[in-house]
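Lecture notes, part 5. Sequence design as translation. It can be helpful to think of inverse folding as translation between two languages: the language of shapes and the language of residues. The source text, in structure tokens, appears below.
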């Protein structure tokens, strides 16, 4: 489902249950108001430089991440939010930050930028 198309459709013909479900999920996961969620979703899909999780990457982590309430796009937004948090700021409330640590195997998706030609410390 293309979220930008859903939001544009909502603006043209009013709201639909599918749009409410998407906006509601972003509100629950990230603590946004409805207006903030709509704005952030629109900005997220308009940003061509956003983090994109490939279908292959998503297949590896889908079960774990969906159990936390995320879908492929809002999980990409979650990764972006945590990557841009400065050290002095409190982490935003998300489903992933409230999971208690247990002795379970965990899967991580690491976003790497730049050249990896030499090891740096």
């Amino acid at each position: 489902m293309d979220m930008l198309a859903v939001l544009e459709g909502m603006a043209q013909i009013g709201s639909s249950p599918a749009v409410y479900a998407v906006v509601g999920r972003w509100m629950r996961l990230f603590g946004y108001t409805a207006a903030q969620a709509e704005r952030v979703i629109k900005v997220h899909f308009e940003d061509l430089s956003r983090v994109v999780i490939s279908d292959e990457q998503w297949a590896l982590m889908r079960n774990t991440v969906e159990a936390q309430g995320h879908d492929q796009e809002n999980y990409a937004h979650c990764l972006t939010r945590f990557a841009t948090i400065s050290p002095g700021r409190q982490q935003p409330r998300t489903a992933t930050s409230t999971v208690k640590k247990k002795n379970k195997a965990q899967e991580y998706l690491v976003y790497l930028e730049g050249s990896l030609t030499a090891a740096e410390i």
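The translated text above is only one of many valid answers, since several sequences can fold into similar shapes. Residues 85 and 91 are 7 Å apart (CA to CA).
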